[in-house]
Amino acid sequence: MDPVVTSALVSIGTTWLTSGAKAPAHTLNLLWQVTLGRWDPLLEKIVRENVEKYAKDIDNELSKIPPENINPEPDISLIGPALEASKYYVAKEKARQMFAKLIAAEMDVTKSDQVHHAFVEIIKQMNPLDARVLSSFENPTTLLYCRFRDKEDPKADQIISDIYISDDFPAYDRNVSLAIGNLSRLGLIDIPTRNLGNVSIGGQNAALIARFKETQLYKVMERDFRSYAAVWEEIQTTSFTAYLTALGLTFRRVCL
User: Fold this and answer.
1) Contact (Cβ atoms closer than 8 angstroms) between residue 130 and residue 179
2) Residues in Cβ contact with 63 at an 8 Å cutoff, skipping those fewer than 6 apart
3) CB-based contacts of 137: which residues, under 8 Å, 6+ apart?
4) What is the DSSP string of 214-231?
5) Which of 73, 94, 124 is a domain's end point?
6) What's the CA dihedral at 183, 214, 222, 237 to 10 degrees?
7) Residue where a domain stops, chosen among 107, 124, 141
8) Is there a contact between 52 and 4 (Cβ–Cβ < 8 Å)?
9) Other CB atoms closer than 10 Å to residue 138's CB: what's the count?
């Protein structure tokens, strides 16, 4: 067996073998060997240095579990797919850590009932920015929707939606808006009153709108508005509410 894989197995097993949890440690090591114990030679160079880091991430999370909370019969139908999926993400620190937390949660009897099999696929479809946004999201959170209204053709209106302005994200970032959309797609947040097209549903969070108007994006839009005054009727900014779903709250608690 590859020496890196062997040392990783030893690393994962050490904490629990010394605490008497030999059966679940053995199960985890077998699954590790099956999923991360074999690599295509072309991929080996890429993942080799990260396999030990991943093992240490898992061991670090396992070490937080009190001996009396160790799950004697962890669900291999969750841990196996999690390890299999994570083998292609070992070079991505944030994803690696989320997988480590997910696996450790299943090995903890006080958390295993909160773990959902869907979490494996959710982690695969998130990037580090998605995780940052989800971690900072309050429940509820106010988002903004900004529209340039065309004087003659409403279908020509220009729209910027899912604008998230907060202490962690003080300036508009298009990628943050994309993260909001992805988190919504994954079912982690719900936006029941999202403004779409010419339908304006929401409110006027004056403080947040004023904060948005201080951003570079709004100042550029305002400049463009003045430049094309003959075309644009007004800049309309509306606030609306987003909520963490039950799935989102649990995922955040388990994996972040």
Assistant:
1) yes
2) 15
3) 183, 189, 242, 244, 248
4) TSHHHHHHHHHHHHTTTT
5) 124
6) 50
7) 124
8) yes
9) 10
One-letter amino acid at 32 equals W
> Are residues 211 and 140 part of one domain?
yes
Does residue 146 share a domain with residue 78?
no
Task: Answer whether 0.90 is exceeded by the pTM.
Answer: no
Helix (H) or strand (E) holding 145: strand 141-150
Q: pLDDT of 28-77, one tens digit each?
A: 877 877 677 666 666 676 677 788 888 888 888 988 988 889 888 889 99
Residues of the domain holding 149: 133-245
| Pairing label, strands 232-244, 141-150 | antiparallel
Q: Are residues 88 and 150 in the same domain?
A: no
pLDDT digits (tens), the chain, 256 positions: 444 444 444 455 455 555 557 777 777 877 877 677 666 666 676 677 788 888 888 888 988 988 889 888 889 999 999 988 888 888 899 999 999 999 999 999 999 999 999 999 999 999 999 999 999 999 999 999 888 776 666 666 677 889 999 999 999 999 999 999 999 999 999 998 765 544 455 677 889 999 998 999 888 888 877 776 656 677 788 888 999 999 999 999 999 9
Q: Give the dihedral sign, CA 163/168/171/173.
A: negative
Q: 22-36 and 3-18 helices cross at what angle (nearest 10)?
A: 160
For residue 252, being part of any structural domain is answered with: no
